[in-house]
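For the sake of transparency, this paper describes our internal protein records without simplification. The tokens are whole numbers drawn from a learned vocabulary of local backbone shapes. One such record is reproduced below, unchanged from the form in which we store it.

. . .
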Amino acid sequence: MSLNVQPVPVSASVQKARLELADRLESLLANDKNWYEFPSPQLYRDARRMGTHGFKKPASNDKARLINFTGREGNEIELRVIEPTSGPSKGVWLHFHAGGFVIGSNASYDTYLTRLSNELSLTMASVEYRLAPENPYPAGYNDAVDAALFALSEDGVSKLGAQLRVLGGESAGAWYAVSVALALRDKHGVDVQSQLSAICAGYGIFDLTYTPSCLYHKRNIVLSSDGMQRFAEAAFAHIPLRDRKTPYVSPLYADLGNLPPAQFLVGTIEPLLDDSIFMAAKWSNSGNEADLRIVDGGCHAFTLIPMGDATEEGLQSVISFVKKHLNQSK
């Protein structure tokens, strides 16, 4: 299987416009306080949720419904469910939100998930997993795996109204999507190739000992090299670097055989570029279908925030990839 590691070609004028937009965003966010500069992470989360810091208050889909179930540790886990209005659901996309293991919630991206739901005719179920540093690894990981097991259960299918078909997420959520697939395959005996139509991993981190781009990226457009490492250390600091080269901490080191088709979407100006390139190459070399989509002028989270036609290019690539594999599924 061949893998194209070049960005999708765009004209010089489009590239120039995208880079200028990224420059403006970098300047706009330059003086914003980081989460670790707040008195507590929760105060930062509250500010983001209310739209009083950095970005506008997230729009809410008032038709979203909540499903709660009990996780392995006795904790309640919430799924925020958005159903398609475009017709009957073809299945469930279990979604893991972005936020560097530390911030965000399953209510942060209703607009994004509503569009995917309607374009794909899928039920989007976004997981409210526990956040670091209050709940370091494996708390959120356990919640994410438990959510997938619930979605696969008779009770879960009944409450969600459809079968689990897709795992997907962005940033830390991409780590969760891949890690959950590995856990289902290795720890729970699930034939993920048959069960899942696709995995969508947007600009994820897959090596918690850090790839070259994560260590040495020079820009700070939404996410910097230092910022990514601070996020990761909030969740994984109790695990020495030498011990992180294990499959369930750093998926890049896993046996990647017998996994579903996966898309690795990433922009060219972001600290996690290498993670997607390396992961897609290994995914493909392990005998699976891998779609590496590199968007010229894309920064971190470019499908979640308005970044002009780069956002649309990324979203359309996700939609096309999932549609293709939903149609190919048995």
The longest helix spans residues 309-328. The chain has one domain: 12-324.
